[in-house]
Design a protein that fits this description.
The complex is a heterodimer of chains A (about 110) and B (about 110).
Chain A lengths: L4 E3 L2 E4 L5 E6 L6 E7 L6 E7 L2 E5 L6 E5 L5 E5 L8 E8 L9 E2 L3 E5 L1
Parallel strand pairs in A: 2-11
Antiparallel strand pairs in A: 1-3, 3-8, 4-5, 4-9, 5-6, 7-8, 9-10, 9-11
Chain B lengths: L2 E5 L2 E5 L4 E8 L3 E9 L6 E6 L5 E4 L2 E5 L3 E6 L8 E9 L8 E2 L3 E6 L1
Parallel strand pairs in B: 2-11
Antiparallel strand pairs in B: 1-3, 3-8, 4-5, 4-9, 6-7, 7-8, 9-10, 9-11
Classes of the chains: A mainly beta (about 110), B mainly beta (about 110).
């Protein structure tokens, strides 16, 4: 069984640019969640996709958007990057919309915004 | 607003020295409380889920317990490989989002 894989591992962007991060979920999982983890903080929930539709969102502005594809892989898009967007972005997959289910996390994409 | 507070922020122990990590929570309705372990440069790794007060779960040197206001992660006779950041998270019943609310974590160092 393959785990959750994320790409790229590291990324440097400048303020105002746009970025796309990618995630392949664990085999058999139909739910993907994205989290932002700033240095020294716990992960913060951005949104969740279940069967290609967004079905939950945390306290993040609309410039954070996503997609889930028929094979359950996913993308996180961030427009108009700000310095505070610098963080580790984690993707997690699960089954059953993640309700009472453990999440399987990838190793993340470290985004630096200059 | 749902809140999760972990203490201490950092803990340094000698190998074999048992201790406990605390996670206190304030939520409107608890669906589940989760413990994860995170190593540097990696994503969190699932340890336990607890659903109701009085529940306990064990795995090797770790034991998690839950009350109506807090959870403890007890570490018995730790080894250097137990060094990591331990994260507590809650999932709240109801509402539109099923995401987890995490605490800031406890950074645990076990010295040989």
């Amino acid at each position: 069984e393959t785990g959750v894989t994320q790409s790229p591992t590291h990324l440097i962007k400048t303020r105002g640019q746009q970025v796309t991060l990618r995630c392949s979920s664990q085999s058999g999982h139909n739910t993907v969640s994205w989290y932002q983890q700033a240095l020294g903080q716990g992960p913060q929930f951005i949104f969740q996709y279940y069967r290609e539709e967004e079905n939950g969102r945390g306290n993040f502005p609309p410039r954070f958007s996503g997609l889930q594809f028929p094979n359950y892989s996913s993308e996180l898009n961030v427009n108009a990057l700000e310095l505070d967007d610098s963080a580790l972005y984690l993707c997690a997959s699960s089954d059953n919309r993640g309700i009472n289910e453990k999440l399987f996390f990838g190793s993340g994409t470290q985004l630096s915004v200059l | 607003e749902d809140q999760v507070t972990q203490s201490p922020e950092a803990l340094r122990l000698q190998e074999g020295e048992s201790s406990s990590l605390n996670c206190s929570y304030t939520v409107s309705g608890l669906r589940g409380l989760f413990w994860y372990r995170q190593d540097p440069g990696k994503g969190p790794e699932f340890l336990f889920t607890l659903y109701s007060a009085g529940e306990e779960k064990e795995k090797e040197r770790l034991k998690a317990t839950l009350t109506k206001k807090e959870s403890f992660l007890h570490i018995t006779a730790p080894k250097p490989e137990d060094s990591a950041t331990y994260l507590c998270a809650v999932q709240v019943s109801g509402g539109g989002a099923d995401g987890l609310t995490f605490g800031k974590g406890t950074h645990l160092i076990i010295q040989p």
